[in-house]
């Protein structure tokens, strides 16, 4: 199956829904990307909007669940595909969906602070383990596991 890389900058317009599908967790939400254009008089008018359903799986779930809510400005990267279905009236419809590989705040429209609480806890535990084993102090040298640990994210617009 051919997967088309896709990125979208927009605003979360639905509350993220966290659920379990089989033995995996997923988060789903919708993003609206709105355009504006300048008129001949120099004023701005709203243009078209693109609404996309974003599906998050794997490691992306934890970050999205912990940090993002309806109304947050986001940047989403992933693979785009269409989903076809029949509506209540029996009409055939299609929707644009993205399987997200990365989701983050749009720092052009908000300020984010990353809390590295998990990384510090991991380093403290390793230091305690090494001290107990008599290996001395190496808390100042984080390893690859600590650098890639989960992080908390605080947004403000």
Structural account:
Residues 130-140 have a biased composition (Low complexity). Keywords: DNA-binding. This protein is an alpha+beta fold and 157 residues long. It folds into 2 domains: 1-109, Beta Barrel (OB fold (Dihydrolipoamide Acetyltransferase, E2P)); 110-157, no CATH class. The chain is built from 3 helices and 8 strands. The chain has helices spanning 60-67, 117-132, 144-147, and strands at residues 4-12, 17-21, 24-38, 44-57, 73-86, 92-105, 111-115, 152-156. A 5-stranded mixed barrel has the order 1-3-4-6-5. Strand 5 (73-86) and strand 6 (92-105) form a beta hairpin. The protein is flat and about 70 Å long. The two termini are 39 Å apart. 14% of the residues are buried. Residues 137-151 have low confidence and may be disordered.
Please identify the top-level CATH class of the largest domain: Mainly Beta
Distance between the termini: 39 Å
Strand content: over 45%
How many strand elements? 8
Q: Indicate the percent of residues in helices.
A: 10-25%
The CATH topology of the largest domain corresponds to OB fold (Dihydrolipoamide Acetyltransferase, E2P)
Order of strands in the sheet with most strands: 1-3-4-6-5
Helix/strand order: EEEEHEEEHHE
The CATH homologous superfamily name of the largest domain equals: Nucleic acid-binding proteins
Specify the structural class. Answer: alpha+beta
Q: Using the CA coordinates, give the radius of gyration.
A: 21 Å
Shape: flat
